[in-house]
């Protein structure tokens, strides 16, 4: 892990939009140590040898296989990797967790079972449980003996989770809460030994509970007939006077929202790591097929149309991975800083993940949409075979879709990312107003005509300019709508897209710059190509989103001035993306896989 350069503070959540970052402070996949790589190898071997040969059987209602594999994963330390050693875990860092998540992300439905168990199932106990609760449950969760699920969603409350109707009432003896209600879409519910349940005490105090699976009064609906992740158990869970001991209340009464929402931050960033792994696997399958499949006497990998698709997949995956590892590194730095003040790691992690909740929300959206792009184009490269269940990409295509829906839909996460940024500004934690005003003043002056220096000089300027575009549009939108901006959802969506692209672009440039510093420019030509192609396309998208937003609220002189400003801040120098994509595609086809 790179240490911070002198006098550099850990970049705060959301601060990337007003501050510069240094490549040497940025965590990237090249920083993975030998020891971490060995752990990754054992995880990869488990996925390749134990899980992937069974995917058909798993998807054919093979929930029992999932249960067995979860226990095997537990024995290998994969379920308790991040849990403290005192509870049977391995206490690995969040950066190791990122790397492992990428590997597990290649395992289709099984990956969903692992994520639900280790994330939303286990973390509420780790973060909010009492010592007694942790001692009782965490060792079993680490070993896989106890399999967990998380019951928040109800038929009437999905995105609006706090509108849940499930209630909890204390019995006359004061020993148990009686749970009554219905939960829906509960992952791992068919075999869970433990349910983390959210219910309202007396109908109004939203509270978390740890509920043993065998509690009388709990019944399950049938397995849902889903579009994808068919081997992931998903059922409704019904509670009818299910008696839960008072000592199983999780956290404080009435504070369940803190549990429900905080564990989602980690879940969202981890989802991005997982879908990046899934994207790499789908890209590899597509490249191999393109090399093997001949039409018109040549491999389809030689056609420009197909080369474009393969290269574009690689660029987007590279970008998603750069943003994921950068965020992982930021969270890690903050955890370390908080641990130095005496905070136990689990609390430090909770606080750090909350600090970077904007980045986590953006990653969730970005990663899941990259995966959807990749699997869609993978199916296209397979042609008719892509539409056959015999091809690996058909499953990947169906399984990918859920990622835009759970862990907060992408609409909700887009709203959250911008909403949280604006809140930080209003609380005085981020000087967005000052930065936006400086941009407005700059727009009155002459543009800087100098040519930036260095290999990625132009790209760094593109990122700086893109940040100014976001500040200009967000600042004007905030001035126009004031507190009502959050109700202007179309504009919020545009701002979210701009913000996310800027974060991803900067992360990509920082990663490549760091690689150049370590290996020299000549050794990084592909990465430079991928960075340039990504930035070129992202600049169009930022421009498009910005224009849509501006036209939604500005008129007359203001409209004209802002459109000119947007053009100035999203302009890129002419660049031959066709030639660059050809070079990237050449490398992919030579390697016969995703190779970055
Ligand atoms: C396979 C699967 C597994 C799941 N696993 C779990 C689990 O283990 N535990 C659990 O608790 N839940 C789980 N869920 C539930 C999941 O988290 C919800 O489906 C999700 O949060 C969306 O809620 P909803 O389905 O009720 O959709 P809705 O909230 O009804 O949303 C429908 C549409 O409206 C949009 N929308 C809603 N509100 C707004 C708004 N304010 N502004 C703009 N657009 C809005 C949404 O983005 C979406 O496009 C799972 C779901 C599935 C399908």
CATH class category name of the largest domain: Mainly Alpha
Sketch the major β-sheet. 8 strands, mixed
Mean pLDDT: 96
Number of strands: 10
Write out key terms for the chains shown.
596 residues, alpha+beta, Butyryl-Coa Dehydrogenase, subunit A, domain 1, Butyryl-CoA Dehydrogenase, subunit A, domain 2, Butyryl-CoA Dehydrogenase, subunit A, domain 3, 3 domains, eight-stranded mixed sheet, two-stranded antiparallel ribbon, 19 helices, 10 strands, 58% helix, disordered N terminus, binds flavin-adenine dinucleotide
What can you tell me about this protein's structure?
β4 and β5 (205-212) form a beta hairpin. This protein is an alpha+beta fold and 596 residues long. Helix content is 58%, strand content 10%. The chain starts with 33 loop residues before the first helix and ends in a 5-residue tail after the last helix. It has helices spanning 34-51, 55-59, 63-75, 94-104, 108-121, 123-128, 131-143, 256-292, 304-340, 345-355, 357-382, 392-400, 410-426, 432-444, 457-481, 489-519, 525-553, 556-570, 577-591, and strands at residues 148-151, 167-170, 176-187, 194-201, 205-212, 218-220, 234-245, 249-250, 294-295, 298-299. α5 (108-121) packs antiparallel against α8 (256-292). It folds into 3 domains: 34-147, Butyryl-Coa Dehydrogenase, subunit A, domain 1; 149-254, Butyryl-CoA Dehydrogenase, subunit A, domain 2, CATH 2.40.110; 255-596, Butyryl-CoA Dehydrogenase, subunit A, domain 3 (Up-down Bundle). It is built from 19 helices and 10 strands. Bound molecules: flavin-adenine dinucleotide (FAD). Flavin-adenine dinucleotide (FAD) is lined by residues 116, 149-153, 158-159, 185-187, 226, 234, 402, 405-406, 409, 411-412, 489. Flavin-adenine dinucleotide is lined by residues 116, 149-153, 158-159, 185-187, 226, 234, 402, 405-406, 409, 411-412, 489.
């Amino acid at each position: 892990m790179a240490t911070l350069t002198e006098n550099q503070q850990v970049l705060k959540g959301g601060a990337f939009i007003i501050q510069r970052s240094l490549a040497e402070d940025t965590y990237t996949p090249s920083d993975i140590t030998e020891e971490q790589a060995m752990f990754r190898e054992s995880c990869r071997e488990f996925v390749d040898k134990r899980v992937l040969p069974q995917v058909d059987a798993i998807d054919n209602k093979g929930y029992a296989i999932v249960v067995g594999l979860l226990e095997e994963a537990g024995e290998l330390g994969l379920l308790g990797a991040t849990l403290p050693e005192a509870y049977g875990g391995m206490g690995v860092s969040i950066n190791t967790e990122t790397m492992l998540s990428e590997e597990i992300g290649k395992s289709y439905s099984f990956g969903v079972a692992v994520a639900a168990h280790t994330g939303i199932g286990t973390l509420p106990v780790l973060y909010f449980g009492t010592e007694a609760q942790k001692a009782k449950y965490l060792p079993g969760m680490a070993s896989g003996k106890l399999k967990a699920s998380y019951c928040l969603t109800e038929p009437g409350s999905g995105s609006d989770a706090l509108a849940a109707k499930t209630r909890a009432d204390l019995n006359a003896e004061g020993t148990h809460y009686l749970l009554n209600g219905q939960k829906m879409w509960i992952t791992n519910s068919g075999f869970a030994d433990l349910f983390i349940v959210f219910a309202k005490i007396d109908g109004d105090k939203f509270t978390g509970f740890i509920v043993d699976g065998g509690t009388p009064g709990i019944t399950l609906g049938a397995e849902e007939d889903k579009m994808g992740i068919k081997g992931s158990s998903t059922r409704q869970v019904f509670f009818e006077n299910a008696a839960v001991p008072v000592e199983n209340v999780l956290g404080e009464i009435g504070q369940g929202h803190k549990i429900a929402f905080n564990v989602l931050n980690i879940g969202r960033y981890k989802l991005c790591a997982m879908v990046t792994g899934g994207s790499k696997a789908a890209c590899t399958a597509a490249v191999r097929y393109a090399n093997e499949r001949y039409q018109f006497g040549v491999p389809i990998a030689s056609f420009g149309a197909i080369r474009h698709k393969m290269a574009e997949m690689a660029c987007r995956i590279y970008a998603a991975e750069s943003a994921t590892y950068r965020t992982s590194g930021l969270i890690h730095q903050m955890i370390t800083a908080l641990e130095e003040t005496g905070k136990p790691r689990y609390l430090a992690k909770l606080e750090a993940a909350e600090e970077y909740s904007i980045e986590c929300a953006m990653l969730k959206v970005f990663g899941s949409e990259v995966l959807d792009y990749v699997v869609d184009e993978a199916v296209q490269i397979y042609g008719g075979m892509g539409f056959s269940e015999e091809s690996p990409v058909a499953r990947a295509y169906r399984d990918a879709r859920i990622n835009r829906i759970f862990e907060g839909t992408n609409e909700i996460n887009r709203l959250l990312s911008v909403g949280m940024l604006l809140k930080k500004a209003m609380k005085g934690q981020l000087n967005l107003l000052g930065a936006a005003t400086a941009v407005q003043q700059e727009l009155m002056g002459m543009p800087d005509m100098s040519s930036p220096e260095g290999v990625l000089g132009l790209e760094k300027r593109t990122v700086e300019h893109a940040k100014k575009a976001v500040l200009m549009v967000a600042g004007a939108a905030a001035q126009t709508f004031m507190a009502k901006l959050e109700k202007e959802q179309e504009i919020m969506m545009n701002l979210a897209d701009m913000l996310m692209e800027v974060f991803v672009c900067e992360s990509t440039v920082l990663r490549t710059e760091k690689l150049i510093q370590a290996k020299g420019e000549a050794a990084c030509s592909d990465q430079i190509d991928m960075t340039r192609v990504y930035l070129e396309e992202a600049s169009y998208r930022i421009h498009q989103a910005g224009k849509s937003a501006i036209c939604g609220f500005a008129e007359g002189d203001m409209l004209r001035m802002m459109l000119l400003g947007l053009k100035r801040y999203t302009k890129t120098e002419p660049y031959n993306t066709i030639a660059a994509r050809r070079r990237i595609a050449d490398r992919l086809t030579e390697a016969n896989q995703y190779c970055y």
